[in-house]
Specification:
The protein is mostly helical and 153 residues long. The chain has one domain (11-148): Orthogonal Bundle (Globin-like), CATH 1.10.490. It contains 8 helices and no strands. The chain has helices at 5-8, 11-28, 33-37, 44-57, 63-68, 73-76, 84-101, 108-122. Helix 2 crosses helix 4, helix 2 (11-28) crosses helix 7 (84-101) and helix 7 packs antiparallel against helix 8 (108-122). The longest helix is centred in the first third of the chain and has 18 residues, at 11-28. The model is unreliable at 130-153 (pLDDT under 50).
């Protein structure tokens, strides 16, 4: 029987590491500044929701949907502008974390392709109005705009 990506990266511990490394990267990578800027100062809630979502998306328990229902990712992220710069910053953070966590996972490349596809789907602006800012500075519900590069499997 083939393992799920969740199992391939070590289950809960692997997904927790993925979430932690991703949000750490968002705080330190200069290329992720636009993405970081549309998140709240404290990203712990976004990190936890990302962990819950990715757990189910990768084939583990459906933690996110059990708590919040259908993800409706694009709709939940419309409050913040996701342009090319935010999208690419988010993808860099995800790719950095994923490379560490899934280095030996057979599903590594497949998952990354799916995440890239969804990140492009999540883009909701061409980026030209990004200079004006979203005006929210993060709304406190844990869904920063770039947190959304997930797939709706």
């Amino acid at each position: 029987m083939q393992q799920t990506p969740y199992e391939q990266i070590g289950g809960e511990a692997g997904v927790r590491l993925l979430a932690r490394r991703m949000y750490e990267a968002m705080d330190i990578l200069p290329q992720a500044a636009a993405c970081r800027a549309i998140h709240p100062p404290d990203m712990s809630r976004a990190e936890e929701k990302f962990f819950e979502y990715m757990t189910g998306w990768l084939g583990g328990p459906p933690l996110y949907t059990s708590k919040y229902g259908h993800p409706m990712l694009r709709r939940r992220h419309l409050h913040a502008p996701i342009g090319p710069e935010e999208r690419e910053g988010w993808l860099l953070c995800f790719a950095t974390a994923w490379a560490e966590v899934a280095a030996k996972a057979p599903a590594r490349d497949f998952v990354m392709r799916k995440v890239v596809e969804l990140a492009h789907h999540m883009q909701n602006t061409d980026g030209r109005q990004a200079d004006a800012g979203c005006g929210h500075g993060g709304d406190g519900h844990g869904h920063g705009a770039c947190h959304g590069a997930h797939s709706g499997r």
